[in-house]
Amino acid sequence: MAATIRDIRDRTGLSLATISKYLNGGNVLPRNRELIEEAIDALHYEVNELARGLVTNRTKTIGVLVYDIQCLFVGNMLHYLGQELHKNGYGMLICDSCNNEEMEKENLQFLLSRKVDGILVFAVSLTGDFLRPAKKAGVPVVLLDRAFRGEEADCVEVDNRTAVFRAAQMLIEYGHRKIALISSDVEYTGMERKKGYEDALRTYGIHVPEEYRVGGRHSFELGYQGIKRLLTMEGPPTAVILSNYDTTLGGILALNESGRNCPEDISVIGFDDLLLSKVIRPRLWIVSQPMREMSSRAVQMLLERITHQEEGGPVRVSFAASIRQGDSVRRLL
User: Fold this and answer.
1) pLDDT tens across 255-311, in order?
2) Where are the alpha helices (DSSP H) in the chain?
3) What pLDDT is recorded for position 47?
4) How far apart are the first and last CA of the chain?
5) What pLDDT, on a 0 to 100 scale, did the predictor assign at position 57?
6) Where do the structural domains in the chain lie, given as residue ranges?
7) CA–CA gap between residue 63 and residue 121 (Å, rounded)
8) Residues of the chain scoring pLDDT < 50
9) Contact at 8 Å (CB) between 65 and 108?
10) Are 323 and 285 within 8 A, CB to CB?
11) CATH top-level class of 61-157+291-319
């Protein structure tokens, strides 16, 4: 039979009020804390988190909305988020929106019905309308990886525009002028990365055919079909930036199937320093996002909102991406 709070009382001689105060996160005398913790350990007492949540109005659970749990970037971010939340005594409830805005709305309502203390969001939607029920309920929300159009919200992201500007700039410095981009034109991150690409072309006075701009939704298929299309052009590019991990994976497969060589036939810069970049040859040039640091900051920001340590207006933190050089870019100059 499971131990109860009364068993702890009988073992310690302390009042139920003192024990309850400790279990609900209140301050008790050091000696009393030692007695209670010794009894909990000896009796194998398990705290009823649901019952405690009714008292404290906290469930110690954080909801996480993700746009696509199959995305390896998202999977790695969840790993780091889980570690950081566990360190702070919180659990994680994950909902996959499958790149569907209606499902995203439903998932938000599900998390609110489970009384989560806060929500971390990898959004599908480009606007924050779907988050209004969370705001009404007073549940803090922090966005990860992508912000909303024209709206301020707590957000932790990478400076996507500058990251791709720097990638294109490095290709230009290596003598490339025929530079293509394969990037989403429907998702926030892809659109920001495309702006960085256009900034670089404009800064250096470079004009490329419109066909060098391959758009769609970030996916394996976008990279695969995009590289195939670029390689069959009459005047193919000498370099391409693949602006997402899944897109990079698809693009590399298409390149391998084509029989073309990298970087002899086409130079490649990919995105996210994950498994792909470590196993393929030649070693890819990669735009690397600081995923662990982003996760840690997002959790810190959310917990500060939950505990009311941060009461001001929306906070937006933008990390710089780095570029890890490899062997996939050929120097033309």
Assistant:
1) 999 989 999 999 999 998 877 667 777 899 999 999 999 999 999 999 999 988 877
2) 5-12, 16-23, 30-43, 49-56, 72-87, 101-113, 132-137, 160-173, 188-203, 220-231, 245-258, 275-279, 291-306
3) 64
4) 77
5) 59
6) 5-56, 61-157+291-319, 160-290
7) 8
8) 54
9) yes
10) yes
11) alpha beta
How far CA 105 is from CA of 63, 211, 302, in Å, comes to 13, 36, 20
CATH 1.10.3470, domain 5-56, yes or no: no
CA pair distance 120, 141, nearest whole angstrom: 6
CB burial string 196-220: b at 16+ within 10 A, e below: bbbbbbeeeeeebeeebbbebbbbb
Query: Fold identical between 5-56 and 160-290?
Result: no
Contacts of 261 (CB under 8 A, 6+ apart): none
Task: Name residue, tokens 């909303």.
Answer: 148
Determine if the peptide bond prior to 314 is cis (ω within 30°): no
- The correct CATH number of 160-290 out of 3.40.50.720, 3.40.50.2300, 3.10.620.30, 1.20.1260.110 is 3.40.50.2300
Per DSSP, 283 falls in state P
Looking up tokens 């996959």 gives 96
